[in-house]
Amino acid sequence: MSSTHAPSLPTAAAYAGFALVLVAALLTTLLFFITRPLIETAIAAEGAGGEAAEPGLVKMATVLAASLAFSTSVLGAAIGIALVGSASISAMVEKPELRVWGLILTALAEALAIYGIAIAFLILTS
């Protein structure tokens, strides 16, 4: 007699993780739109031959953008790896032939962190 399991619903921790990533993305977007006019003014003043109004503002915004790109991508990757990893282990218990798919899906979630590192590196070197 085979036992059938009802599909499990996402846990409260999964919803909390999703909400955390969503809030981080919204705060990053809001911060970008708040600081963008200040940065453009500083860059325009520097490009016009004059001194920038606040010389450290561009460097601060660059470091902030790189750190936000890295931290939000790593946070999203961690949540993705946790969810995909636990689901793939559960699936491998029932069907061992699914282990390749579990590794592939976990690698796709890990790629998000690698993209975040690449974007942070590009921001810091530009």
Keywords, separated by commas or semicolons:
single chain; 126 residues; mainly alpha; 3 helices; elongated
Brief summary:
With 126 residues, this protein is an all-alpha fold. 82% of the residues lie in helices and 0% in strands. Belongs to the V-ATPase proteolipid subunit family.
How would you characterize the overall build of this protein?
This protein has 126 residues and is an all-alpha fold. It has a domain at 57-125: F1F0 ATP synthase subunit C (F1FO ATP Synthase). The chain is built from three helices and no strands. The chain has helices spanning 12-47, 55-94, 99-125. α1 (12-47) runs antiparallel to α2 (55-94) and α2 (55-94) runs antiparallel to α3. It is elongated and about 70 Å long. The model has no long low-confidence stretch (mean pLDDT 78). Residues 64-123 form the V-ATPase proteolipid subunit C-like domain. This is V-ATPase proteolipid subunit C-like domain-containing protein.
Strand content: under 5%
Evaluate the radius of gyration.
21 Å
Q: Give the class from helix and strand content and strand pairing.
A: mainly alpha
Write down the overall geometry: elongated
* CATH topology-level fold name of the domain at 57-125: F1FO ATP Synthase
Superfamily (CATH H level) name of the domain at 57-125: F1F0 ATP synthase subunit C
Distance between the termini: 63 Å
What is the topology?
Blueprint lengths: L11 H36 L7 H40 L4 H27 L1
Helix pairs in contact: 1-2, 2-3
